[in-house]
């Protein structure tokens, strides 16, 4: 069966990386089903971006699934903890949401099996990122093995592939890829700590990485930052 006749599940946050990952899947001929998780994140505005991206890419189905991870807390994105604004550090920052990608991929896997899809796309990146452990290639490889053990489809020999087309790209590479694919960066949202008026803060790790990527790529980012 060719990719043109297959469905792919896209984990679509509304950020630049997930947008580019989804567009790559569409370019490869997959029919797209998008899953966006509303986990009561601080930057809930990204859900609007996810909706816009899903519409622009013409996905077959877009599910926005409520899952209130603020009940767990443990992160500046889900609890009353200040978002760091001093620059990207070497350690794992407080914006790390405990096991987020593990939780999200598990949900995506369930949707994939229910929709008879075998390919899952996620926009994780292991170069220009904030050091989250659940963005590493080892995690993706481990989850792919687990997916085959945990599902009826895997048990019957029809396993799943976790597609990570951005895994080894820099943010500059990703910015260039967005333009190549004909995407408008303004559709996406990156900021962890939106300012009043729904403007990106310009100082959180995610804003800094986005700005750095576009600057290094020599591409104008239409995002209007507070600072």
Number of helices: 7
**What distance separates the N and C termini?**
50 Å
Q: What portion of residues is helical?
A: 25-40%
* Rg computed from alpha carbons, rounded to a whole number of angstroms: 17 Å
CATH arch. level architecture:
3-Layer(aba) Sandwich
Largest sheet: 5 strands, parallel
The dominant shape is globular
Write down the overall mean pLDDT: 94
Structural class, please?
alpha/beta
Query: What is the CATH class name?
Result: Alpha Beta
β-strand percent reads 5-15%
CATH topology: Rossmann fold
CATH superfamily: HUPs
| Overall number of strands | 5
User: Can you tell me the number of structural domains?
Assistant: 1
**Strand and helix order:** EHEHEHEHHEHH
Word description of this protein:
By secondary structure, the protein is an alpha/beta fold. It has one domain (3-217): 3-Layer(aba) Sandwich (Rossmann fold), CATH 3.40.50. Helices cover 35% and strands 11% of the residues. It contains 7 helices and 5 strands; from the N terminus they run βαβαβαβααβαα. A 5-stranded parallel sheet has the order 3-2-1-4-5, sandwiched between helices. α1 (16-27) packs across α6 (171-180) and α6 packs across α7 (205-217). The model has no long low-confidence stretch (mean pLDDT 94). Its cofactor is Zn(2+). This is 7-cyano-7-deazaguanine synthase. It comes from Parasphingorhabdus flavimaris. Zn(2+) binds at residues 191, 201, 204, 207.
């Amino acid at each position: 069966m060719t990719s043109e006749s297959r469905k792919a599940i896209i984990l679509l946050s509304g950020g630049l990386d997930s947008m580019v990952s989804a567009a790559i899947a569409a370019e490869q001929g997959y029919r797209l089903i998008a899953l966006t998780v509303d986990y009561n994140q601080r930057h809930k505005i990204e859900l609007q971006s996810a909706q816009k991206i899903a519409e622009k890419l013409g996905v077959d189905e877009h599910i926005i699934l409520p899952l209130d991870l603020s009940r767990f807390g443990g992160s500046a994105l889900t609890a009353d903890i200040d978002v760091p604004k001093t620059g990207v550090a070497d350690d794992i920052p407080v914006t790390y949401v405990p096991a987020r990608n593990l939780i999200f991929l598990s949900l995506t896997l369930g949707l994939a099996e229910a929709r008879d899809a075998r390919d899952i796309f996620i926009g994780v990146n292991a170069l220009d990122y904030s050091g989250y452990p659940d963005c590493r290639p080892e995690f993706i490889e481990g989850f792919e093995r687990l997916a085959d053990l945990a599902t009826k489809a895997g048990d019957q020999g029809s396993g799943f592939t976790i597609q990570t087309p951005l895994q080894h790209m820099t943010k500059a590479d990703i910015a260039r890829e967005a333009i190549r694919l004909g995407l408008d960066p303004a559709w996406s949202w990156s900021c962890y700590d939106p300012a009043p008026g729904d403007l990106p803060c310009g100082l959180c790790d995610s804003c800094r990485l986005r700005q750095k990527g576009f600057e290094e790529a020599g591409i104008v980012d239409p995002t209007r930052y507070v600072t």
